[in-house]
Design brief:
Largest sheet: 2 strands, antiparallel
Shape: elongated
Number of strands: 2
Number of helices: 1
Strand content: 5-15%
Structural class: alpha+beta
Order of helices and strands: EEH
């Protein structure tokens, strides 16, 4: 079991919030149990519409292949029309 690095008492304010002193992270995942125990796990959130570096590399590669004429034949999608 790991040892804690801080220990302090906190009071719930009038809006039912607790302030974390010198919090190391901006976001936390919260689990609250019936017995009153609360567990906070740090989270690092990813911007919602960010395209990953891997996806960008794949897109660049696809565009390069298209410019070089390395493309497949056209697809017949007529069977999917309503």
């Amino acid at each position: 079991m790991s040892e804690y690095i801080k220990s302090y008492d906190a009071k719930i304010d009038s809006k039912k919030r607790i302030t974390l002193r010198e919090a190391s992270f901006e976001y936390y995942h919260v689990e609250e149990y019936e017995n009153g125990r609360i567990i906070l796990e740090p989270r690092v959130l990813t911007p919602p519409f960010r395209v990953s570096e891997n996806t960008l590399r794949m897109m660049d590669s696809s565009v390069e292949n298209m410019k070089q004429g390395k493309v497949s034949g056209s697809l017949d999608l007529s069977e999917f029309k309503e």
